[in-house]
Specification:
This protein is 34% helix and 22% strand. The protein is α/β, with parallel strands linked by helices. It has a 6-stranded parallel sheet. It has a 5-stranded parallel sheet with strand order 2-1-3-4-5, with helices on both faces. Helix 11 links the parallel strand 12 and strand 13. The longest helix has 24 residues.
């Protein structure tokens, strides 16, 4: 497109929110690059003239961050440092009409499914033959693989279906081809993501096909780690774990957001499962894959949550002893069914409960980490920071889980595997030494 500057256009993409948004930005980058338009992610040099802000509209904090980022870019445009500001992603999809009125300086707004329209605005053609091709924003040794879009679940607190629509699976052949392409670029680890992994295939193949997909992906030569994020617990297809048991390159790791443990809360959240059923499921998973790393995510301060509900959740954590736990405070989202309930837990109480719950997990995490002292783990080196190398075991995903800190005078290859003997344990991290292989 012709901008005010005489220089060739250079597009900077700023991505906010989750890994699914990051994949969308990477796909947009790949399309722009194929149209010979220079594109960068999170450009710190400020030598670009066009910005695309890929927003998040999931919860209040994310919405605030997205709006502040848009306003920052608009301010740069007013100073003459940018020619154009475009906004896409979930926030834009959900609130486009209001945002167009509130921030008229933005040149165009796009929804989550409007990639061809963004490209048209940038005078680029949508190239269908690039299916699965993208310009990675992550270090080249790992990447996210989005296996489906949208969600058919009806959790009362969740606004995702409003922004991403119903569940749409991508064909297995397409995903295998994309994985092969990623491996050729140097990727060793892929993280399977979706709003909900276990629904995969029901729309496209009329049966659950996550297990088949895992077997097919694990056959991709050169792919050393496959990791599963975001499984729905109700009617969890336990046979999926056969692939994890059978194939060495599928990490013994499962991210399964449970949201709460009190039956009152689970019912109000419309989770279609009880605490007792969740405990049985966790026992079944651990029986099938001994030593599996279980990660979950929780919500504090849902409408009507009582002190008894919080105590029940803490008791559940002590009994289940998850390896990894994350927590959000409840965000009262309009047009969700929970919005009809009174948001009766004050913000400061939500924060206090979240902290209280995480203090329980902190003790569990430290105890589990201390059990690893003296053991040797295969570690993927992610980066070098402040003179130390930082890596991960198969039990740790990127950014959200533990890191293994390695102090060594030797040069370690970023993106390669080493064997590390754990020497120290902290609440959420480990420290160790590389051993001869």
């Amino acid at each position: 497109m012709k901008a005010r500057t005489l220089k060739k256009d250079k597009v900077n993409i700023i991505t906010l929110g989750c890994s699914k948004n990051m994949v969308d930005s990477e796909v947009l980058s790949g399309q722009l690059l194929a149209n010979e338009i220079e594109v960068v992610h999170e450009n710190g040099k400020l030598d670009h003239n066009i910005v695309v802000v890929n927003t998040c509209g999931f919860i209040d904090k994310a919405k605030e961050e997205s709006i502040n980022t848009i306003l920052d870019q608009v301010a740069l445009k007013k100073k003459g440092k940018l020619d154009k500001v475009f906004v896409t992603g979930c926030l834009s999809h959900r609130y486009r009409d209001d945002l167009e009125k509130e921030i008229p300086e933005v040149d165009a707004w796009f929804g989550t499914m409007e990639l061809p329209l963004i490209l048209k605005e940038l005078e680029a053609d949508y190239k269908a033959e690039l299916l699965g091709e993208r310009l990675l924003a992550t270090p080249k040794h790992y990447a996210y693989l989005k296996i489906s879009e949208g969600c058919n679940r009806t959790c009362s607190f969740c606004a995702i279906p409003l922004m991403r629509g119903g569940h749409v699976s991508r064909p297995i052949e397409e995903l295998v081809k994309e994985a092969e392409s990623l491996v050729k670029k140097g990727v060793k680890e892929i993280m399977l993501i979706a709003q909900e992994l276990t629904y995969y295939g029901l729309d496209l193949y009329k049966k659950r096909q996550l297990g088949e997909l895992l077997y097919r992906l694990s056959d991709v030569e050169g792919l050393e780690w496959i990791r599963l994020h975001y499984a729905y617990p109700s009617k969890f297809p336990i046979e999926v774990l056969d692939a994890m048991r059978d194939r060495k390159n599928i990490c013994n790791y499962l991210d399964m957001p449970l949201q709460h443990a009190s039956n009152n809360m689970l019912k109000a959240m419309k989770r279609q499962i009880t605490r007792e059923e969740m405990e049985d499921l966790i026992a079944d998973i651990r029986e099938k894959i001994p030593g599996i790393c279980l990660r979950t995510t929780l919500i504090a301060g849902f409408p009507g949550e009582t002190r008894e509900d919080v105590e029940e959740l803490k008791d559940f954590l002590r009994r289940m002893r998850f390896d990894r736990v994350g927590i959000f405070t409840y965000s009262h989202e309009e047009n969700t069914t929970a919005h009809d309930l009174e948001d009766d837990v004050p913000a400061e109480v939500k924060e206090a409960r979240a902290q209280e719950i995480m203090e329980v997990q902190q003790e569990i995490s430290l105890e589990k980490n201390q059990e690893k002292i003296g053991q040797v783990f295969k570690v993927l080196i992610d980066k070098k920071e402040a003179g130390r190398y930082l890596g991960r075991t198969e039990f740790d995903s990127v950014e959200v889980d533990n890191e293994v800190v390695i102090n060594t005078s030797k040069k370690l290859p970023i993106g390669e595997f080493v064997q590390v003997k754990i020497t120290k344990a902290f609440d959420y991290d480990l420290e160790g030494d590389v051993i001869d292989q």
